[in-house]
Amino acid sequence: MGAFGKWALECNFAKLAGQEMADSSDLRSNTQRTAFRPGHLSQNIISTLKQPVHLVSACLRLGVTQGTVALIAACVIAITPAIAQSRTTTGQVDGTVFVRDFEGPSYVPGAKITLSGAVSLHEEADQQGRFSFPEVAPGAYTLMAQFPGLEATENITVEAGKVVNEELTLKPSEVKTSVTVTATQAEVKQEVATQTISATTVRDAPNQDERTENLLPMVPGVVRGPDGRINMKGARNTQSGALVNSANVTDPATGSPGLDVPIDVVASVQVVSNPFDPQYGKFTGAVSTVETKTSDYEKLHFSIQNIMPRARVRNGSVVGVGGATPRMTITGPLIKDRLAFTQSMEYRFIRTPVNSLPPYERDTTLESVNSYTQFDASLSPKQTATFSLSVYPQKLKDLGLNTFLPQPSAPDYHQRGYQVYTQHRYMTGPDSLLTSQFSYKVFDTDLTEHNNDPYRLLVETTEGGFFNTQTRRSSRLDLQETYQFGPRHLWGEHRWKVGMDYAHSHYDGWQAFRPVEIDGESGTAIENMSFTAPGRANVNQNEAATFAMDQWAPSLRFSVNAGARMDHDTVTGETHVSPRGAFRLALTRDQRTILKGGAGVFYDRVPLMIASFTSLPGRTVSMLDQQGQAMSSISYINRLAGNLENPRSTAWNVALSRHISQSLIMQVSFERRNTTHDFVVSPASVGDSGVLYLSNRGTQSYREFQISGRYLLHQHVINASYTRSKAYGDLNDFFQFFGNTPKAVIQTDGQGRLNYDAPNRFLAWGEFKGPWKLTVMPVLDMHTGFPYSVQNEYRDYVGPRNSRRFGRFESMDLSVLRPLSIPMGGKHIKARAGFSVFNVFNHANYREVQTIQESPRFGQFFNNAWREYRGKFVVEF
Known about the structure:
- The protein is mainly β and 877 residues long.
- 9% of the residues lie in helices and 54% in strands.
- A hairpin with a 6-residue loop joins strand 36 and strand 37 (593-603).
- Helix 1 packs across helix 4 (52-61) and helix 1 crosses helix 5 (66-88).
- The longest helix has 23 residues, at 66-88.
- The protein is globular, with a radius of gyration of 32 Å.
């Protein structure tokens, strides 16, 4: 356009603007008024844009040059039709995804949603199973929801200016999907006493070492105890169950969880407090289950992250590497729609400081490799199969390092192991499913000392090399068959499920103990211990179980789940029957007020180290005078107090939940569990002869009252809970003295609050979508400090056990992430970048206390968990 044309256009717009000046209002005042009209902002802006003359006159009044006004007007005229068209020629697709079982509909967070047609769009269901595609061109589409082992498909039509709402009901997959877990509808739902952490939360939540188990404390009733282990619902780490893709991954020797898959392959993490489904067995506490993602059948995906190491900073200077955790994951098809694979591998080098020790002598050092390989196959429209291989060697230097156990006296821990797993699923009918599963796990460990110097327990510290050496070789083979019948109708709908398990476990172990000396306040020896020759044990165990259950829904508002499980093992020679049942009652016709509850009996496994107790070395305890001479000695032999029995627990719970509004869900619940026949160790003596007894006389109890809620605000989610609980029982657990970090001194058993008891706990976390595409996830955890006992210089307990407590624990962790698009080679690569802060407010959360009353530091706390920072950068191809 020539100069004359530009001048003419500017004059014409100026003339029009002058004619409209009296009728138009100031743009700034219009904008201010619009801002106070929620729900009408976009409409008013578009209305303004549709009147370019008003916009021009406003610009002139604001002092904008005529040339600029002409350019703005031309742009507005050009884009106005596009804006109007976008508002009238696109539609919207909203919906929810859920499963239906005997308890009614339950939303499924983390389900993958695909909209296929003129375009292909992808989304992931949020914490309430909701999804949305805001701008969709009109036409016919296929809407698909997928969750491991489950699928839903609907054909829809999108019309301009209209919203399509769909409710997708997940059912067992028939084609194109392979699964990695025996997942019935009841297993993927969020029910009473069950909490699920979805894949998006696993990916985005603050996670200091990016391990799956670190996410479990985000569930109410799950805490990390003072020894660093996870305790679920008042049970010890060795009393709970751990499943990965429905396969038992506990160590056969100790009963502790023995497998942690790379976090990138995790689809969900779930804690089932009281699993009244009889397919669950061999525990007396809660169960954690991890489900892995199905390999991608459509296209190849590759991600890499954490490629930059963290610095180790001491006294303001960088001294080596503090951590390096590179991780790589690749997934994609080998044969389209038939065979797909996933390979994830991570290397860990992590130094964890004990902040109360000298700067250069305060780190435990972990070095490990974690490899996970998975193949998913669609064998036919009715058959799928999965195969996986996990390999997880690791070395941990200075295990158990703390203020009173320095590096020279702490042991080293070496672990080697792998697990082979396969699962086959065959749909025998539209709603019936046969699942066959096999797994074989090897878990070998070694505990070694740094030196052979005499092990000395001083009032303020420990000297010498660690007193215990262990070599353990263990394995377990598991076979499972489960059949889910299709629905039957007799006075309502029945859904039967039956199954059987067989497991063979083997343990070959060797332990040696070296002399231990206890020094008193004066600095001289007051007691010593010597041990007999090293002991070796070889134990085999066969376990068999069958179960049957019926999900009966006599009406839409009431349903019952009843069944039983029968277990037998060759170590105890006992057979046990465990009846269980649960109910669901909708108190209102709208199904928004639900009363749920259940009760059941549970029998625990017998860790094979316990079965080897009598082969462990005996000990002689001598009391010394001021010259270090023995005044008296007692020799102890190891003996079982009767036959070994399976620990037994009875549990029940009840919960009332209410959907107060579309955005707010509240629940009040109470649960109780009592455990008997628990394993405890306690010495007894007459004269100079003594016996160290292992008995089944231990008891435990746990009760919990909980108020919890979830609030949804647009794309934001807030979860909050208050838990009032009490965990009480016998304190001389076997694995305190013969596990990975054994104690040298064994005192008479006593009862009290368990070491991880936290009577009052407030937990809140959320996911917020901020500006600039930021995802912000804060986690606030506040609870009563853990209990501890007072001791004298002989390590005898003084006064009631666990009668004192640490200070209140308060921690705010935070993660902030943002998606990025990186141009590379003419393409754009997806990435995510952000950071995490742990203990944001740097609250004094001490982890150790001086318990010996003769110490001048008696009652002082040590090893504060300081504020820490972590960066994150993920590249996805």
